[in-house]
Amino acid sequence: MQRIKKDDEVEVISGNDRGERGEVEDVIQPWYIDRKTKKRLYRDKNQDLVRVSGLNIRKKHKKKAGPNAQGEVVEIRAPIHISNVMLVCPTCNEATRVGFREVDNKKVRFCKYCNADID
Ligand SMILES: [Zn+2]
Questions:
Q1: Domain residues of the chain, as ranges?
Q2: How many angstroms separate the alpha carbon of residue 48 from the centre of ligand 1?
Q3: How far is the CA of 76 from the centre of ligand 1 (A)?
Q4: Per-residue model confidence as pLDDT tens digits over 29-74
Q5: Which of 9, 56, 82, 112 could link 88 by a cystine bridge, Cβ 3.0 to 4.6 Å?
Q6: With contact defined as beta carbons under 8 Å apart, do 80 and 50 qualify?
């Protein structure tokens, strides 16, 4: 089960965007792939990346071909490593660590700060 999912609110805890909050738009889950068979071997959950709305914007300078053409600057949202964000608890509004427990035979996440179920 994922610690952080799409549409969660997260807070960045390191880097230039430290302290900023945003919504998770995308969780990128890298797989280890066997080079020969191209088969997926296993996934390392600790290597997940998240794309957060409005955060970690990088400017990329793009060159255009041709003598009179001008280059342009495109903004891209770079993914953030999962260890650099913390989930913001919807109940207590704190950036918190996430725990897992079973409620009615379903595994749910809970806030380790206020002990409320998250989903
Ligand atoms: Zn909480």
A1: 9-88, 94-119
A2: 23
A3: 32
A4: 888 888 899 898 888 878 899 999 988 888 888 877 777 777 888 8
A5: 9
A6: yes
